[in-house]
């Protein structure tokens, strides 16, 4: 397991380094050449760079695994769920509509900024694959069990709107399904590794926050 974790970490560090560098490059162009770039576009690009850089750092310093989902399906699901939206962006052109692009930028910024907060809170427990390292139940993880995926979904919605087409909608829907399956795989290994996970899952909803706390009736 240690060897598998080491080589997996090495591959993810390489991929995240490439992505973070690619995300940072447009920032240099904004400041050096494209003086007309909007402040929102710059802030959004900066947020994306911070999020990717944070993923890189958390992968490097992450805790040793206590359990990992077995088989090829959880691994394929994790990789596809992470990178399919990048494939979709390369297959579909950006929509030529200023109002749609501004709305998309707002969604992308909200999604990336909130994802960065969830990732920071998750800390050294972060893992691309379905792996149990440490059970985090505080902060955003006390509201829903998978806040990072919810925030990433907002980012994906922004990308769908920015590159709106039937292909983009289809790939975006596939990405949502893959992320849901990924969350289920994670819950499976967390239940096996941490006996207290069942009580946490009963207390905290999976994806959608409860509007009000359910209080058990007397005697129940």
Question: Would you mind describing this structure in some detail?
Answer:
This protein is an all-alpha fold and 220 residues long. It has a single domain (2-203), classed as Four Helix Bundle (Hemerythrin (Met), subunit A). It has helices at 2-32, 39-61, 72-91, 98-122, 147-162, 166-193, 197-203; strands at 67-68, 131-132. It is globular and about 50 Å long. The termini are far apart. 33% of the residues are buried.
Q: Which strand-content bin applies to the residues? A: under 5%
Radius of gyration: 19 Å
CATH topology term: Four Helix Bundle (Hemerythrin (Met), subunit A)
Distance between the termini: 43 Å
Tally the structural domains: 1
Class by alpha and beta content: mainly alpha
So how many helices?
7
| Apparent shape | globular
Under CATH at level 1, the class stands as: Mainly Alpha
Helix content: 55-70%
Please state the second-level CATH architecture.
Up-down Bundle
Topology:
Blueprint: H1 2-32, H2 39-61, E1 67-68, H3 72-91, H4 98-122, E2 131-132, H5 147-162, H6 166-193, H7 197-203
Antiparallel strand pairs: 1-2
Helix pairs in contact: 1-2, 2-4, 3-6, 4-5, 5-6
List keywords for this structure.
220 residues; mainly alpha; Four Helix Bundle (Hemerythrin (Met), subunit A); two-stranded antiparallel sheet; 2 strands
